[in-house]
Design a protein that fits this description.
The structure is a homodimer of 219-residue chains. The first copy, chain A, is mostly helical and 219 residues long. Chain A folds into two domains: 80 residues, Glutaredoxin; 119 residues, Glutathione S-transferase Yfyf (Class Pi), Chain A, domain 2 (Up-down Bundle).
Amino acid sequence: MKLYGFWRSLATYRVRAALALKGVDVQEVSINLLKGAQHGEDYKAINPQGVVPSLQIDAATPPLYQSMAILEYLEETYPEPPLLPKDALGRARVRGLSLIVACDAHPLIVPRIRDYLEKSMHLDEAMRNRWLQHWTLQALQVLETHLAAERATGRFCHGDTPTMADICLSGQVFAADYFNVAITALPTVRRIFDACMALEAFDRSRPLKQPGAPQSLAH
Amino acid sequence: MKLYGFWRSLATYRVRAALALKGVDVQEVSINLLKGAQHGEDYKAINPQGVVPSLQIDAATPPLYQSMAILEYLEETYPEPPLLPKDALGRARVRGLSLIVACDAHPLIVPRIRDYLEKSMHLDEAMRNRWLQHWTLQALQVLETHLAAERATGRFCHGDTPTMADICLSGQVFAADYFNVAITALPTVRRIFDACMALEAFDRSRPLKQPGAPQSLAH
């Protein structure tokens, strides 16, 4: 199994973390987003959208794409440990929390958006940073409101074992780190992030612990 | 069952179409996004994110949120007719196609983004329209590339019965209509959109056929 991704990519992080939690071995292939490798013909033959991640199961199977679709595939094919609860309402809650990040926040801060704001809209760095910080913080505030109020919240977003929602939440906290967004006012988000990182599978999946990440930033 | 939504909302359309395809009755409650009703305290008690749709199953159950999480819930609780194939790879393909729209395209054109581009970034209408058209078209081009090349494509996105991917594709074609994006160069997308609209469940779920939609635009 081959995971095409990039150290910094938060969508890649989601798949890496899910594979690590489920104990599935994968070979990672780096597609350097900072050098535009995702737009090359070689990679577009794997992923026509020119985005990471893609998961190649084997040579006979077309690569899978879209991180949340990949997570659902892994859940169906490697069910243990589960990353979704068993009951339909619980599953809806975990997916809902996940998609607050995966649909409504993360796609606003990815390289193609940052490029468009800079090169097509000619917005200066201060305005671009305001955009990145605004949407990154907003999603985490919405998560905090849900998580702090709802009885289904436990040590993790849903009960006491990690789910897809924790994978998405922790990725969004990395985004906050990237863009200097303080999350001190979000105690439940912070607590759950810390609970995630206390697990070896999450910790070794961190963007800044991947090959290619700048060593000066690793923590 | 109550669906909080808005006639124009494409995420609401997804849930409305899924319910119609599955033959589930629902009462729709309009949250007027054009008047900012989604930001009111009443609605935020239902959906802290202040977005539509929300699906209230009954008075005892917290409302569900995020359209794709709601679609998965409906698939689990009203399995017939299925909106996902049975095999894990097919399910991954349908979810992947769906999320190209639901994660990477639609969240870029929703009211809160249009408001931010106008009121916080002070971009003029021409530049805002370029943004809306660019991301709307790009997702449909990616879908066309997948659908035209892949053998799993049938009368619909995946085989000969509609799935979540057709719901997402058709919503994105409505977005193209809203923003005057020509899709003449996307024959597979157009063909599948037409196949969807030939079904009564899709046709009566169209945004422009809902109460409140401007009659002059209905088609």
